[in-house]
Design brief:
Largest sheet: none
Radius of gyration: 29 Å
Mean pLDDT: 82
Order of helices and strands: HHHHHH
Structural class: mainly alpha
Helix content: over 70%
Number of helices: 6
Low-confidence stretches: none
Length: about 190
């Protein structure tokens, strides 16, 4: 009888070991998959964030060049046969729309990749770019274009929004993915 109990105990130990090994193996595979996905997502975010900054700077340069060439625009509007100011307004609307839409498409890709802090910063970028676009359009079609006060205020908002995005993007891409559930890591961080 004692030998049968020994066999039962050995069988239980083997069964528990097998279950434990299976659990640990599954956990390791899940952790490796999570880390691999996290690394892929981090790389995608880095590419999207860098592309946004390049597109952002290009779009701002287009708007700055448009305003910077105000004397040439005034000259063309004054010497245009027909209604040159109306044509100037149409041209400004088209140019600002193109610059705005090009940057907005890149911002949308960033918003798809997250995280929430970067999404919030991207929303601020869109808002600042909208204000800048509207400031460039302000008073278009008249001799008092550009509206320098609106343009200066919008430029300050653009700089603030870019800095906010840069900080959020930096935080989102600095930390490398780690194995283990996010909930466990968060609990560990709170203890430290």
């Amino acid at each position: 009888m004692g030998e049968q109990w020994g066999n039962i105990v050995v069988a239980l130990i083997v069964a528990v070991s097998a279950l434990g090994g299976t659990f640990l193996g599954r956990r390791q595979v899940a952790d490796e998959a999570a880390v691999e996905h996290g690394q892929w997502l981090r790389g995608q975010r880095q590419e999207a964030f860098a592309a946004l900054l390049v597109s952002w700077d290009d779009g701002l340069k287009q708007l700055d060049d448009l305003v910077g060439n105000w004397e040439g625009a005034h000259y063309a509007a004054e010497h245009f046969q027909g209604n040159g100011w109306e044509e100037l307004e149409k041209s400004i609307r088209e140019d600002t729309h193109e610059a705005f839409e090009a940057v907005k498409r890149v911002i949308e890709r960033v918003q798809l990749l997250g995280p929430p802090a970067v999404d919030d910063a991207a929303v601020q970028l869109v808002a600042a770019l909208t204000v800048l676009r509207d400031a460039v359009r302000s008073r278009a079609g008249g001799e008092d274009w550009p509206d320098w006060d609106a343009y200066a205020a919008a430029t300050e908002r653009v700089v603030t929004a870019r800095d906010g995005f840069l900080q959020a993007a930096k935080v989102a891409t600095q930390e490398a993915p780690r194995p283990g559930s996010r909930r466990r890591r968060d609990r560990f961080r709170r203890r430290c």
